[in-house]
Amino acid sequence: MSAPTIDQSSVAQERRLVTALPGPRSVELMARKQAAVAAGVGTTMPVFAARAGGGIVVDVDGNHLIDLGSGIAVTTVGSSAPRVVAAVQQQVAEFTHTCFMVTPYESYVAVAEALNRLTPGDHEKRTALFNSGAEAVENAVKIARTATGRPAVAVFDHAYHGRTNLTMAMTAKVMPYKHGFGPFASEVYRAPLSYPFRDGLDGPTAAARALDLLEKQVGADNLAALVIEPIQGEGGFIEPAPGFLPALAAWCRAHGVVFVADEVQTGFARTGDLFACEREGVVPDLVVSAKGIAGGLPLSAVTGRAELMDAAHAGGLGGTYGGNPLACAAALAAIETIEADGLVQRARDVEDLLLTRLRALQAVDPRIGDVRGRGAMVAVELVRPGGTEPDPALARAVAAAAHAEGVIVLTCGTHGNVLRFLPPLAISDALLHEAFDVVERAFAASDTTAG
Ligand SMILES: *Cc1c(COP(=O)(O)O)cnc(C)c1O
């Protein structure tokens, strides 16, 4: 399949290095960052962006980098998608804010209508808008608790749900997300995930293991919600075995537990479906979206069954900025772009290209233990050859080598041994092939088994 026909921006769609990376302007800015910005705010690549569009990020030294990260799965439609740019430009001149809870505006309602239409299931739905993924996850828990009158929340191994206090409690990995930041919110319980590469279990068996633990250690009657990422993001792009999610959803339905799909990373065409739950026909009670929803503007949402969403008293949900008019204008433009430009299909075509390239690499490199993922959300898990021992040093080395050649790649995983690929869907096939040529060379140049 060919690349999308959309004219992304004036950014030349080619990898071009005019300095070593980071270049001198970036080095200067990095020194200012270190002097001015809190050290806890990390940096994947010490290269400062000047503009971006299509599949390219241009840095302040004029280097053109291929973007396989989308700012962590956010700029699915591109980082200067024409419809988004035009919609935000128009809105910013009309008004920037009134607070939807003070004097509402139409675009918020239109985003809610769109989400009610687009999320899985044809039951009656309602939506509430927020600013970040973590804030939306917190609100999904608030809604589930008030609707059920129960306190407990079930989450999973390797889960990532955010950096606020409640979502830190829900997140699995201590470094860097939780270390030193406790005490954490109570009534959060963790169940084992389905992790086919490491547990070899089929979906229903893995679900039975998780549900047995929840029944014995928490009790269904105490559970307000079960919150799960249909494909885990930060935890390592772990795709549960078929049957795992449907079994969890069925158990939730049988026991009055609210099934919450955290589709913050997987939503909005990223996985080759509008929402990842659709692949197995799972209909969540509540869907949390953010990241890809608004072409890069901060917006998040909880969408779900009307009777759950309407359980909270008036004034119980909201926030000063939630559903900001610029973000809503951007979301409507992003949704129009996904639908008009066929980006769900584009994600499936990107999947074919990525999996073909990565499986070819795996066939000749025993350090690639697993190739997995869907759509434009795929990853390789790196191991010591001959087994499943995680090799985070190799992931770091390959990422660093790719960065030096002007390709933005990210790592993830509980062990830090997963290289993940999240290109914008506005990228061309030619750029993807060039990026994976670079990744291939980065693997060849990264011999961490010798030492
Ligand atoms: C990124 C992410 C979050 C948190 O979103 P923020 O906007 O960073 O608060 C929550 N859940 C998942 C699955 C994510 O990938």
Write the layout of secondary structure elements.
Elements: H1 24-36, E1 49-53, E2 56-59, E3 64-67, H2 70-73, H3 82-94, H4 106-118, E4 125-130, H5 133-148, E5 152-156, H6 165-170, E6 188-191, H7 196-199, H8 203-217, E7 223-228, H9 244-255, E8 258-262, E9 286-289, E10 300-305, H10 306-309, H11 325-340, H12 343-364, E11 368-374, E12 377-382, H13 392-404, E13 407-408, E14 410-412, E15 418-421, H14 429-445
Parallel strand pairs: 3-13, 5-6, 5-7, 7-8, 8-9
Antiparallel strand pairs: 1-2, 2-3, 4-10, 9-10, 11-12, 12-15, 14-15
The structure holds pyridoxal-5'-phosphate.
Averaged pLDDT, please? 96
**Treating each run of at least 4 consecutive H or I residues as one helix, how many helices?**
14
Count the E strands: 15
Distance between the termini: 42 Å
CATH superfamily of the largest domain: Type I PLP-dependent aspartate aminotransferase-like (Major domain)
Structural class: alpha/beta
How would you sum up the global shape? globular
| Unreliable parts | 1-7
CATH class of the largest domain: Alpha Beta
Multimeric organization: single chain
What characterizes the major β-sheet?
A: 7 strands, mixed
Beta-strand residue percentage = 15-25%
